[in-house]
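USER: If only I could read backbone structure tokens as easily as an amino acid sequence. It would mean a lot if you studied the pair and described how this chain folds. Here is the record:
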Amino acid sequence: MKVKTKLISVVFMCMITAVIMLFTACEGGTKSPECAHKTRLPTFYTGEDFGICDGSQIIVMTCESCGDQMLEISGFNLACELSDEAESGVTKKGNAYLKVNEACKVCGANFEAYNETTEIECSEINEGYLKITKNNVLVLDMPIYYINNHSCPDRELKKIKVSDLTEKENCGGYIEVKTCSVCGKVVNVNYDNIIGWGLRGRMPAYSEFIDENGLTHEVETLSCEDCGIKIAEQKISVKLNRCDTYLKTVSQLIVDEEVIYEYVIEERVDSNHYHYTEYTYEMLGEACEDGYAVKEVCERCGYISKYKSSGHIFEVKDVARFPEPCIGNLEIEVCRVCGETVWRKAFYLGGHTLERVEEKNYTDEKGIEHYYYLEKCAECGVEVSHDEYTISGGSETGGDIVYVTETVTYQEKSYSYTNVRQK
């Protein structure tokens, strides 16, 4: 049965800060099933390359072996004005799918996408396509293909004695190897428990080379002269833009020039959008609790993210510094979306000579009794007022609610906040 669901973010609006499995090892391909696609290299494109909204980013993966090109779901972010709904359902084979076909309200490009997920043992295989049409011209027609390996949380830990790996003497201890309990793939190797060998205290040997694709490989090797064991770590990095780098690290345990164990870590690093990002907000109702639309624009690489949220976003503002002999700053917290002063922060009373100049009980126009007092610093003139009242039976459980409003006045400007608690 086909249903509507707000999962378009999985297909289109996923954050580029998410980890993207750049060099994912595949067991088959969308266009060339006979190829294993074990090494895929990225090419970075912006919205300008396809005539779609600025801030869009698409990463196309190219298989080194067969030349096939493909996308990964987390490998593209579209800054276009699209709805937050997609068609989802389950195929006759029991696979979950997502389907989208709609046009951007800003650039007019039409996006047609389909993704189907097949679960096989510890892996999830995602296959589909993305088509972008602009002015009745097909500007992108690319298959989606990637494997999310090791979704199964179970791991097996094996301890392998060094003496079982080499017949040479002078080395002892063991190596810890973690493997996937389903498919047997090595996911981690720990060498910390090897004892009495020549790697202790040694500086690793460094080398680097550039492959036929122009990628730099940095290699760090530790070698034991006693038993012949080597630990080699090779790092391959791809700089996509000013903010994002992909890093693949291959660690190998080598004995007598034979690779015994190998495991690979793929990660996205240096995603620094949020250090250079400007935020704009559009209220969707009367207050922050009613929701607002957020637009994030990275000043360095042009990345744009759009999403909806709700609730106040606190931001500390330093509005004044007290002169000597008083100490500290007057800081307030203001909601960056609606501008409401929602909290007063770090009003440092140390060093102030606060004297209570007024104290009273009074009844407001609604007949509610208040307790009020006003304190003033004789040195800098800052004033702090306290106004408290209680609403009997005001809570959902019938308990009393206490409202306390404090107001700080300095240099003819006042800042207030109200704290509400159940008695």
